Amino acid sequence: MQCRVCEEEYTDGFDNDFIDGECLPCRANRECDEYEKAEAEELKLFNKMHDTDFTEQDFYFACYYKKIKLKTLGEFPKLQDVYQYAKMQKKADSYNRTLDHPAAKDSDVPF
Question: Considering the entire predicted model, what is its pTM?
Answer without folding.
Answer: 0.73
